[in-house]
Amino acid sequence: MAAKISYDDVEAGTELPAQTFPVTRDTLVRYAGASGDFNPIHWNEKFAKEVGLPDVIAHGMFTMAEAVRVVTDWAGDPGAVVEYGVRFTKPVVVPNDDKGAVIEVSGKVAAKLDDEARTVRVDLTATSDGRKVLGMSRAVVKLA
């Protein structure tokens, strides 16, 4: 598989299609099983509140993975992401109701890095409940 977006077709400022990702308690239990991260702050409301959290929170790595989907879907190839990093700024609080939480992610090409390597830097903005949940969320992407 290779990136479907051509380096020549993007400029700094090119916006990626924004996406929203629902998160429920069920999502967190499934992620815990897949990742092996059974920390009770991600599934036990009583424990989460006892340690000072407002409620159960989503796994940081889950939040990070959902956010980068905006980039991989846009590029057309998950392998096109050659570098990715974030800072965790606020947790995604997941209430125990029918709605859960939503992670809203937008992105734009911040810079064309290397004509020869055909790489760009994409900056992402991820929010939940109106609060920025990831900071310095950046991916380096090798385009076609």
Summarize the structure in words.
Helix content is 23%, strand content 37%. The chain is α+β, with helices and mostly antiparallel strands and 144 residues long.
Key structural traits:
alpha+beta, five-stranded antiparallel beta sheet, 23% helix, 37% strand
Q: Helical segment tally?
A: 3
Anisotropy-based shape = elongated
User: Strand order of the main beta sheet, please?
Assistant: 1-3-4-5-2
* Tally of DSSP β-strands: 5
Helix/strand class: alpha+beta
Overall residue-averaged pLDDT value: 97
Largest sheet: 5 strands, antiparallel
Bin the helical content.
Answer: 10-25%
Radius of gyration: 17 Å
* Unreliable spans: none
First-residue to last-residue Cα separation: 11 Å
Order of helices and strands: EHHHEEEE
**Fraction in beta strands:** 35-45%
Summary?
The chain has 144 residues and is of the alpha+beta class. The protein has helices at residues 25-35, 45-50, 60-75, and strands at residues 15-23, 81-88, 101-114, 119-128, 131-142.
Topology of this structure?
Elements: E1 15-23, H1 25-35, H2 45-50, H3 60-75, E2 81-88, E3 101-114, E4 119-128, E5 131-142
Antiparallel strand pairs: 1-3, 2-5, 3-4, 4-5
